[in-house]
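As noted in the main text, all predictions were made from sequence alone. Below is one such record, for Diacylglycerol kinase.
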Amino acid sequence: MQHECLEQVFYLFYNQLSGGNRGLQFQKYDQQELVFHTKPINTKIKFFNIYEPTSRNKGLELIKVHFQNDIHIVIGGGDGSIMWIVGLLLQHQIDLNRCIIIPLPLGTGNDFANTLGWGTTVPADLFGKNNYILQNYVEQWLIGAESFFDVWDVDITLKKDGFISEIKRHSNSVGEIKILLKDSKFHKPMINYFSLGVDARIGFGFDKNRTDNQFCNKIVYCWEGFKKMFLKTPKINQSIETLEYFDDHDQMQSKLLFKTTQNIGQRDSITIPGNPINLLCLNINSYAGGLKNIWMNAQYENGYKKYDFHPPSFSDGVLEFLSFNSILGIGSERIIPGQATRLSQTKGPIQLTFRKNEPLRTYFQIDGQYFSITNPISVSIRSCQQLSQGKIRVLINKEGIVQ
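Prediction:
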């Protein structure tokens, strides 16, 4: 036991399907370990496959009996893999207050990893000669800085005839399937962003045509964006009736997050400048696979001045709301920053209500996972109720942090 105390253990859960199957490299060490001679103490990595129940359950059981106060968990995958593992930790009644999450960006977008300074991609060979590349990562993990990271609950309520669809792959086939819902309600945690509108429709088409190659996937995404320029998707002012926030006692406030118009005999309606194609709710300072500083570069809504807003943070319990006026604006943001419009900052909880009197089909995304939604009633976003103060512990790379 004394010898064990002289080692730093990292539990690495890898998604074998992420990033053009780069995670498959870890299979040769599945349920095994590697020891690195690092200073001031030696380091041990234990490998577990997220997709294999036997492998991942073994890793979770080892974490349960981990005797040190802090448990370092490396997640090799995309943004979706992060909350997958967090959910499994909760299911196994593992104390999240002891766990420190470290992302290894194997996915397509990797905005979570990018926000924490770990970049948006990894080398094609994650080991290198004599495991030199992996040891470089280990040494960075050892000197990383700990922080807290906000997690949010997204809850969607639908009409009785409403439904949500997603794209699923089965061996050699790809298809759109309806998600089985209980009481017409849908729940999913969010760590990066929620969006509604055309950008989610682009991603929905991308999911149908994604490849096993990370670079090719970026080309597919651009092609889907080009195609959607010629298809009609409900704009935000056509699909949303109100966007309101609650107080700490769950009492609805009369104030809307955005400028409203008064119509005699009617409820105030949401009016977002420019008749935008999407509504984007950010928890982080990175979007769409590394598009960063989007909030700080955004234009200001009429009536707001620069000092009305403050810089975003993934640990401040505050969400940022923005919009884009066109697909071209989203696409050109990387080259010409400032295409988005700032709308509001709020700690929530918030509730978005859809128009009631007409059938509606639109699209939304949560952390880069895309959905089609038909006949929704509302979306609420609040601090995650399952986590202490709605936060997880994470490790940041201070040298690579997104400013």
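The chain has two domains: 2-143, 152-386. Residues 97 and 186 are 27 Å apart (CA to CA). These features were considered when defining construct boundaries for the mutagenesis experiments described in Section 2.9.
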